[in-house]
Amino acid sequence: MTLDEAIEHCREKENCSACGQEHKQLRLWLEELRERRSNDQNLTNALEQIDPSDYYKGTSMEGLDPFSRQLKRFDIHVERIKR
């Protein structure tokens, strides 16, 4: 199912008495996601705008992507999920 198909499905189910409100809220979130994707406002780009990589040239964080820099900067440790 594509994002547009999911949005259309939610739109069709909005009139359902049992779950219409949930479908409407989901549709709104999916439309926001579609808009953000079309505006190229993903997390990495947003962080890069706030905290450019150029600031880290010649430091131990040079070469890290913006998300990884934030994790390191704030000493956040992430454990990999085993599957």
What report would you give on this structure?
- The chain is mainly alpha-helical.
- It has helices at 3-13, 20-38, 43-50, 66-73.
- The chain folds into two domains: 3-38, no CATH class; 43-73, no CATH class.
Shape from CA axes?
elongated
Total beta strands:
0
Low-confidence stretches: none
The level of helicity is 55-70%
What would you call the structural class?
Answer: mainly alpha
Number of domains: 2
Characteristics:
0% strand, mainly alpha, 4 helices, single chain, 55% helix, 83 residues
Question: What would a concise description of this structure say?
Answer:
By secondary structure, the protein is mainly α. Helix content is 55%, strand content 0%. It has two domains: 36 residues, no CATH class; 31 residues, no CATH class.
Question: Which helices and strands appear, and what pairs or packs with what?
Answer:
Elements: H1 3-13, H2 20-38, H3 43-50, H4 66-73
Helix pairs in contact: 1-2
